[in-house]
Amino acid sequence: MVFALTGQHSGLGCALVRMDSSHLDQSIQVLQVHGEEWARLPIQQKINLLLKVRHNLGQTASRWVEAAVAAKGIDPSSPWVGEEWVTGPWALAEGINGLLATLRALAAGHSPTLSRVTSRKDGQVVARVFPNNLFERLLLSGVTAEVWMQPGVTVETLPDHMAAFYRRPKPAGHVALVLGAGNVNSIAPLDVLYRLFVEGRVVLLKLNPANDYMGPILETVFAQLIDGGYLRVVPGGADVGEYLTRHAGIDSIHITGSARTHDLIVYGAGAEGAARKRRQEPILTKPMTSELGGVGPTIVVPGPWTAADIRYQAENIVTMKLHNGGCNCVASQVLILPETWDQSADLLGAVRTLFDRLPARAPYYPGNAQRQQEVLTRHPDAERLGPREALRTLITNLDPTAADEYCFTEEVFGPVYAQTSLPGKTAVEFLRRAVSFCNDTLQGTLGVTILIHPRTLAELGAEFEQAIAALRYGSIGINVWNALAFLMAQASWGAYPGHRFDDIQSGMGCVHNCFMFDRPQKTVVRGSFYPFPRAWRHGEWHIAPKPLWFVTNRTAHITARRVTQCAIEPRVKHWPGIFAAALFG
User: Fold this and answer.
1) 3-class secondary structure, 203
2) Beta-strand relationship, 288-291 and 252-256
3) pLDDT at 539
4) 189-244: per-residue pLDDT in tens?
């Protein structure tokens, strides 16, 4: 029996409570006993375990989605059910499949195969990681992804920076604590897979109280790993989180959450914690990695957009904000428009219309209303759009020079959207200003999206690639939401590297990353400006209709379920049903 400090939202805080810790101690002891065994387990046995996990996922996927839909208050007949398939079982299945491909290559005695590795003029290595096969080319037609490496990696040495755990002597057992996210249900299990299969660590997963209903589901999915003593899943609130972070049996920590929660864990609460942070005197000295969200920007580069382009890209923008009720760490929070572009008003108007017309959605995540109110207090003239209970809020024409603007410095976890404009007589001038604004004014470095017409992209040429290189973000989407990097097992996912504990921004380290790069800098995902079939009229030969993650997709619930089934049981027989449903989205 121990006493623990608790606090709202944080996992740490100020109220003394009585807590029975015996089950937590026992879980850690089991993991310690099996830690070295897991580290030394032959690769083929790990492959077999992953196959069993994927099979279990197939048996559990429907139950998983039903539980999430009920918890988030989604109409079971709504296409928005597709979101729970995409960011739940499908994302996990893709993570499993990516790890399987790499482990099979390692078992065969070689590094995983990359379709293309090049270097930029400055020597930075760029590895093409998607697509890798025919199904990937069809499923996300027109989409490519690259992982850009940190300086110092060369084309010749890149293989030495892959699968490091499997290339060095195996360490003694290491127990990793994963503090799970409460918004997207695949985050925690994907973080678990990374610790287990990329880093070779046994794992204690503490679920977030917002989705502790996932406990029995994940115990079923990971049954063989739990039976082997390599994983434990525990529920609990702030008291449990604090106790585990301080436990001597925990060797490292990974958290998905906010920078505020991170600082509470590292420095403690209140004035004393703030003073320790200023002095750079952490009370937690264990290795710690994190994914902490931030203020996500969307940059719209001026160009010759048509009315159809405006409508389609407005759907793209609104999706980046309203997907999962706005409760995504990589949601778009600030829309950056060109000040002198004659179509800025049309695009903003189309965004406003969609905000207003989309059906209501329950604000399921704790604190949604309070965070909206904080914004309204600072911006009483903000627009309230859609049904009142939807909490949709639009703030326009923010001053880009106001460095202390709340919407630029605080992540508003919910359906609140801000817009600002930047000057620039040309697309190049605007883009340079937008890059500087994102890097120097906005809080966080997790992800940014750029929307740009193909003709403008061609005209900018090397200037555009230089802008991509200059952006200090861990994921960059070009004409596609950068959150796609989260869904791709092949991509690295995390903040731009280089943050310190006392200026954590969007965190440290990365996850997913099934190629097991040890020095990734950023993932760049590129998509088409046009959907199929309109793309063919513009010479872009892909077959991707409206993406299934769009909040306006009418068949997302059908398509996403079929895509998940195919990921769990990869068979050509699933393809016709997927593409038939996708075409009617």
Assistant:
1) strand
2) parallel
3) 87
4) 999 999 999 999 999 999 999 999 999 999 999 999 999 999 999 999 989 999 99
Contact by Cβ (8 Å): 536, 343: no
Decide: 541 and 159 in contact? Cβ < 8 Å.
no
Q: What angle do CA 134, 135, 141 make, to 5 degrees?
A: 90
Distance between CA 434 and CA 474 in Å, rounded?
A: 17
Residue 118 pLDDT grade (very low, low, confident, very high; cuts 50, 70, 90):
very high
CA distances from 375 to 180, 297, 343, 395, 407 (A): 27, 17, 27, 9, 8
Split at pLDDT 50, 70, 90, the class of 436 is very high
Query: Using CA atoms, how far apart are residues 380 and 448, in angstroms rounded to an integer?
Result: 28
Distance CA 463, CA 523 (A): 19
CB 417 within 8 A of CB 333: yes
Residue 423 pLDDT more than 70?
yes
Pull the structure tokens for residue 558.
């059908």
Higher pLDDT, 545 or 250: 250
Q: Cβ-count burial of 58 within 10 angstroms (0-12 exposed, 13-18 middle, 19+ buried)?
A: middle
Residue 114, Cβ density class (10 Å: 0-12 exposed, 13-18 middle, ≥19 buried): middle
Taking the C-alpha atoms of residue 70 and residue 211, their distance in angstroms, rounded to an integer, is 11
Cβ contact 412:333 at 8 Å: yes
Sheet holding 288-291, edge to edge: 231-234, 202-206, 175-179, 252-256, 288-291, 507-508
- Sign for the CA dihedral angle at 261, 267, 273, 277 comes to negative
Global pTM exceeds 0.90: yes
Domains and CATH numbers, the chain: 2-112+162-291 (3.40.605.10), 296-553 (3.40.309.10)
- Are the CB atoms for 463 and 484 separated by under 8 Å? no
Distance CA 10, CA 20 (A): 20
User: Using CA atoms, how far apart are residues 436 and 426, in angstroms rounded to an integer?
Assistant: 16
Q: Is 325 left (phi over 0), alpha (psi -120 to 50) or beta?
A: left
- Are 143 and 535 in contact by the 8 Å Cβ rule? The answer is no
**CA atoms lying within 13 Å on the CB side of residue 82:** 24
How do residues 124-167 score in pLDDT, each as one tens digit? 999 999 999 888 888 899 999 999 999 999 999 999 999 999 98
Question: Contact at 8 Å (CB) between 452 and 529?
Answer: yes
Q: In the block, which residue shows the tokens 């993406």?
A: 547
What DSSP state is assigned to residue 467?
H
Indicate the DSSP class of residue 331.
Answer: -
Q: Identify whether the C-beta of residue 290 lies closer than 8 Å to the C-beta of residue 257.
A: yes
